[in-house]
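[SOLVED] Predicted holo structure with calcium ion

Edit: marking solved, answer below. Original request kept for reference. I posted the sequence and ligand SMILES and asked for the 3D complex as structure tokens.
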Amino acid sequence: MLPRIPATLLLAALLVGAAHAGAQVIPGHYIVRLQDDCDADAVARAHGVRAVHVYDSAVRGFAGALSTGQLRTLRRDRRVLAVESDQRVTVLGRVVNDGTLAAVTVTSSGDLVPTGVDRIDAELNPCSNAAAVGIAIIDTGICLTHPDLYVVGGISYVSGITSANDDNGHGSHVAGSAAARIDGVGVRGVAPNARLFAVKVLDSTGSGSLSAVIAGVNWVTKNAKLKVIKVANMSLGFPATSTTLNNAISKSVNAGVTYVVAAGNSATDAATFSPANHPSVITVSAIADEDGGCGADGLATYYGSDDSFATFSNYGAVVDIAAPGVSIYSTFKDGGYATMSGTSMAAPHVSGCVALYLATHPTATPATVRAALLALATPQSPVVPWLDPTGRERGGFSADRDSYAEPLADAAGL
Ligand SMILES: [Ca+2]
Ligand SMILES: [Ca+2]
Ligand SMILES: [Ca+2]
């Protein structure tokens, strides 16, 4: 923790995320999963389907509008493993729009250290080689010209949008928490200078389709080796499960990409939310931290007291680790900065941790990365500060909603 500039208390904010509603199916649109040796394009053509997305790496298949007749003949085709309805996927973070700035400290370089970066002591990590690690932000895109973000590539799977540039702000915010540069301006992220890939699957309203998300996972998997993409952040979700998405993520993880996903903002068990419930991803819950320090002596936030489980955060056995997700200051669209809340904001703190770890352990598998992050994280209890073996002050958090006590991410010793 650094000495801090006093901050205004967040007094009002929009509710984060929608209430837990049922899955929102996109009528007439389907995702078709094929056997591994199939040419997805050829199968789609044979059935007269104009595929919107074709999957050829993380999973074989295609997605698009299907007539009742096409649906019937596809289900009879022996190359078809599954046909599922496409559905609506949304971001899991909102702008805090009361004009207050979250507490931040200033480094000697001049970059602001947002509270979340400070709380997990990322500023104490020497972070020698993060630029060697690529992080894919599967989101609304990233502001491609933002001076604080090192964006080296991208793709858009949003209908009618060819650029991966962020027209919403959410993806840019997520990207900045993970990797905003130390350059004397703006903020710094957890793993400054990590290379960012903008995988745009959600539109300007922060909404998109499951079929586009699968296309994003497919792109990451296909490009992981060549572009050295080792981390994928998904600050998005939907209240259902998709076997096609699950298979795609599994294959991507097997290809060496560590997936970090938001638990969701419905204050309920994340077990029924995808991709939070995937067994091979790192699922992240959110804590409220007001002052960037441990010890619960900051001011109360709109979503709970300092260093407590955020009132909106999903919980449950599928959650692996917690990170700050309330009133987080980071980069935004159009070269700007904004304060946002949500498990969307917690996840990229962990993606940054993954990048820091991989920078010094380049051959670690996703399972090894997860084990290392959990081993070095701060236990929930005690909240009262204690000194770790390096003499650094540590402290957990209170008010977890279940009996699974996920630890709080810590970046100093990665
Ligand atoms: Ca900066
Ligand atoms: Ca605190
Ligand atoms: Ca828990």
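OP edit: The pocket of calcium ion (ligand 3) is lined by residues 315, 319, 400, 402, 404-406 (CB under 6 Å). Thanks to everyone who chimed in.
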